[in-house]
Amino acid sequence: MTAEALPMPRLVPTPPPTGQVEARLLRLVDRIKADDALAFEELYRLTRDDVARTLFHLTGRRSDLDDLVQETYIRLLRAVPAFRGESQFRTFLYRVCGNVALMHLRWWRRRREELTDEVPEQVFQGVDPERAAQQLQATKLVHRALETLSAKKRVVFVYHELCGMGPEEIAQAVGVSYNTVRSRLHSARLDFTKAMKTLVQEVEAQP
Amino acid sequence: MWALAADELELDDKRYVELHLSDCPECRDSLEAVQLAQRALDSARTSSPSLDWLATDERVGAIVEKRMRKNARPKWVPFVMTGALVAVAAAVTLMVWPSGEVNVEVPPSEPPLVQVSAPKPIRVELARGLTRVAANVEPIAAGETLKSGDVLRTGVAGKAFVHLPDSSHVRVAAGTQVALTRAESDDVALTVSRGRVSVRASHEPRKAFVVHAGAVSVHVVGTIFSVENGPAGVEVAVSEGAVRVESGDAQETNVKAGQRLSIDARGKAKVGPLSPVLERELSEMQGVAEAVASAEQQVVTVAAKGGRVPTARQQQPGALPRLSAEESKARVVEPMPAAPSPAPAAAPEAPVTMTVEPETQVEVERFDGPGTAFPSLAGGYTRGVPFKRDEFAIEAPAPAPSPAPTAKAEGPVTEESEWAALPKTPAQVAPPTLIVPMLEPKTAVVPAPAPTPAPAPQVVTAKTSSKSLEQLFLEKAEASLEKGGCDRYLPGLEDIALESVDSAQLARVLRARCFDSQLRPKQAMSEYAKYLEAFPKGRYVDEARGALGQ
To answer: Residue B4: its chain A contacts at CB < 8 A?
Structure first.
């Protein structure tokens, strides 16, 4: 029996609304709709790390991550008035992140350039240096493996595996059906595993 | 395999797969690969990129502030109509103001206040997202007083306006941290750790007024300027007067009105014109400082034995003072035996009259209208209009030759709500004659699709004088594309692209190339799109079309 013949995974259900944080974000959204700049600042403070991490995983080790963060918040500022609360705000935010990342990934692949070495270094707080080095190595490998995925698969895979989003939430964030999410995720997992295996073998083969 | 490793399978399925694994070495290998991948993902999940959050916060803050301001503007009202509406609104504010909100602490029925000549405190006029950086970060509200040594910080969308004891005013932009190192009535030193402060320094005699930013010190005589300490270095912009800038290697540079001096991290200095954003901020600085100074003059103080006091509530709107306190002291004072009365609003050329009874001290200013006096660089007074406030969009006739009216002027017609409670000087509510956004080069020059005709005279003048500088700047910017660091030239290139006739094409294309070289595709494409829109038959059309895939 091959891996493709295995039953489709029972995906992790969408986690329940995040209570206080989500409620706080929604209150901020209401204030932003009333042109309260301070509310947007607070929203930015609350979400910027999450946005940066998501964009980091979605786009890989890019040197212009700060531009992407900026672009995300510009789009968010434009889009917030249209947010009607039909989904969690976090889903809405991830959707904006995903759109920015997709645009960037497509452009990047059109350029067909190698990744630059000007990589923003990752920080791992509260861990010892040895573990931090391992984490850095693992993150690099993961991002190299993610490079082998198509942009659409990559977004779904990152949302599920690295951002902890459930399939229903991903379907809302990406704007596709639940089954499409499952299909893309399954395919992405196969591709990712294959790529990781190859990469690890390459690393091990190095002196 | 993934579902098994992630423990996502139902119990029956799990048993089935495990049973199969025991007989299938190939599948066990697959499971190992999946487990390896999942371990790597577990590690990567907690990793965060390190960003230059200071710079990012500033950029996002600036955009938010700009956008929020834009949202506050009425988009549908034609600009001329808006000007008229603002005039009416300002007039209404003037009529309503004496009855209410300004800090006139003396109700007519209460006994007059005794004048206390205590030193002026450091007072916060406006505090949006302002905090004091101490052991804990404490929010600061408007109206609060500060002390020397306080460190202020504004949020990404914050803004603050602070009055110093020497009658100077400081505007703290978004994303700024500034220390009031010394803020006495005769000695002022500010230290800008990051962000930008704009200063309207008074002409009070004092030991020094200095603003430190990194290795740069800006020495002030009495002027309006801003100091920015950003990732690319320190930038000093002057809109009125001049400042002396000392950089780390003891080099001194004089920056004059209308100039912007940029000093990068290596201490290399460059002079350029003011950007529209800076002009807007400095203009706001001037306008607000004047309005506040006027408001301060409304607090009329008398000795306890005094008679009837002409408080601000009783004054005519037209009698609102225009000059600041120190400026008023230079005026002629004529004691009059008559009872106190509102200051004469008419007779602009008449000397200022102060009505004084024995043991009654009254400070009343007169209003001179558009032809009023304002402090000049030499410390004296000059006739004319002191400064333009683009927020109010009602520009009094300028002393300079009138520039050609622009057909389309976006932006300047607006009124910032946070200053709405402040009194508007009659100059600002004068009948709108001509909306000339002198401080908004962006609005003065609309990129034309064809070779543009001669632009407004003021633009031509500015361009002629800076032509060689412009060429030099473009050459340097072009060279920086290969050497790296072209981002430093982006604001200047934008100015040239908007203002210049000869070099606008090259400036726009250089911006696009710079963004492209920095792997910022959206911005690059946007620049190329702007180029094609402005110059459909330009020299670089092929390049732009190629980049946009047309």
So the answer is: 6
Which of A10, A136, A192 lies closest to B9 in CB terms? A10
pLDDT in tens, B113-167: 434 445 677 888 777 778 777 666 678 888 888 888 888 888 777 788 888 888 8
- pLDDT of residue A180 exceeding 90, the answer is yes
- Residue A179: the pLDDT is 92
Q: Do B56 and A141 touch (CB under 8 A)?
A: no
For residue B436, is it within any domain? no
Phi, psi at B162, each rounded to 5°:
-125, 135
Q: Into how many domains does chain B fold?
A: 3
Question: Do B8 and B103 share a structural domain?
Answer: no
Q: Rounded mean pLDDT of B416-424? A: 37
Say what the pLDDT of residue B293 is.
59
Same domain for B184 and B219: yes
Quote the distance between the C-alpha of residue B462 and its chain's center. 22
ipTM over 0.85: no
* Contacting residues of A for B24, CB less than 8 Å apart: 1
Q: Please indicate, yes or no, whether residues B481 and B408 belong to a single structural domain of this protein.
A: no
Same domain assignment for residues B395 and B498: no
Domains of chain A: 16-116 (1.10.1740.10), 128-207 (1.10.10.10)
**CB burial of residue B181 (10 Å; 0-12, 13-18, 19+):** middle
Which domain, by its residues, includes B20?
A: 2-41
Q: Which residues pair with B123 in a beta bridge?
A: B145, B163
Rounded CA-CA distance B300/B363 in Å is: 6
pLDDT digits 0-9 by tens, B267-276: 778 888 887 7
Mean pLDDT of B25-29: 82
Tell me the C-alpha distance between B21 and B44, whole Å. 28
Please tell me whether residues B36 and B58 are part of one structural domain: no
